[in-house]
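Kindly inspect this one:
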Amino acid sequence: MKANSTQMEVIILTGTSFSASQFSDKNETASKPGRSEKEILTEACWNGLLPEILPEICEQIPAGKKIYLWEIKEADAFIELELGELQESTDRYFSINPYSFVPEQPLS
């Protein structure tokens, strides 16, 4: 029998007031000139700032479980975070990434 593990996908839209307001001049990551918003958000997530950026997501993690950030995918208008206890592939049919599930939709 396969054990259940926690797996989450999070999409952070870029080019919005939310993503732009996540960083201030006191943040050394944001103060580097010539960096795009996606690069700044990606680096912040890799550096463990996800609980500060999206505390609501971290509150959803069951007690006693450790969730790891396995992958960050950049798209045109968002970044997608793949989190989980184990590194597992996401079922494309159930993904929230529009580039993943749109080709899976029937055309009838």
About this structure: The helical segments are 17-20, 37-46, 50-53, 55-59, 98-101. The chain has one domain: 7-104. Residues 46 and 69 are 8 Å apart (CA to CA). The chain has five helices and three strands.
